[in-house]
Structure formats: C-alpha cells, structure tokens
Amino acid sequence: MEPSTRFPDFPLLSTSRLLLRDLRPTDLDDLYEYASDPEIDRYTPWDRYQSLDDACEDLGGYIARYEQGHFRAWGIEHRADKKLIGITNFGFISKEDRRAEMGYTIARKYWGQGLATEAATALIQYGFETLDLVRIEAVVLPENRASTKVLLKVGMQFEGLLRSYQVWKDKPSDLEMYAIVRK
Question: Does residue 72 contact residue 22 with C-beta atoms inside 8 Å?
C-alpha cells in the first residue's frame, strides 16, 4: 500500500487498474461528472447532483470525516485515466459483530469493464484481512441486475428479499441482501 499524502493513516488499496484512495478537493469535477448522471441516480439511495455545489458539499463531508479518523469511503481512481470514476465504502460497520455493509458506485462510462468487481474484491479483502471482519454484506435494488452480477462474481450469496427495507428517494423499497463470510 502506498501512503496517502493528505491523510497518512488512510488505507490505500491497489488493484491492477484501480487505486482506492482518499477523496481529495481535486476530485470535485470528476465526482460531479459521474454523480450527476441520471442513469446512476436510478440505482442509488441518494439523489444525483443538480449542481457543482452539491458535489462540493458531499466532498467536504467525506474530507471532514477523514479528518476525524473515519476512513470508510474510498475514491476509485482509474490508474490509466488518472481520474476519479466512483466511490466504494463500508457504509455501516459493527465492530461487535465484526460485520460491515459494502457499497460502490462507478461512472457509467466505465460500466461493463469489471472495475466494480475489482474494487469490491479489494474492499472485501481489506475487510477480512485488515479489519478482521467475519461477514460483509451488500443490499441492491432487485432491478439492478448488473450490480447483482458483481456481487455474485466477488463470492457473495443471495440471502433473500428485504421487503420495504430502506426508504430510497422517499419511497419504501425492497432490497436484495447478499453476503460473504470469511472462510
């Protein structure tokens, strides 16, 4: 792992095509570009950015959490393009149960290239090997078949349908639960 220049304790994760790293002020334009896409908006609980100010506010929130020592979100940088193309995170961690919920978002231009699988694999490895987790789970809208494929490729198993599990965009939504346990 390479040290972060901005947050020296930040856990950088590397794959052949990606660098999972801290989000930085210089990521603002890339963050806005992919997170303002209406197609991305279909599969996320948050609303797409309507302005650069929306992206700036979110980016500031990530950086503030880093400054408080909360390293749960990684920017996904495409090594060849030197561009932020998404975010992956542990949105919820239970230290007592050694369990976490994983999420990810990838810019539409990079869909279908195996990059979400690559990022998710790195995050799962980090969760099991470094955080000593015993279970990592993810929830997905039933209609998001591409994300379901990613979860199955990384070794997660379908555990069931959670009816009205979360309110997404002011609407109670059914979500599918997938999980992997450390062997």
Answer: no
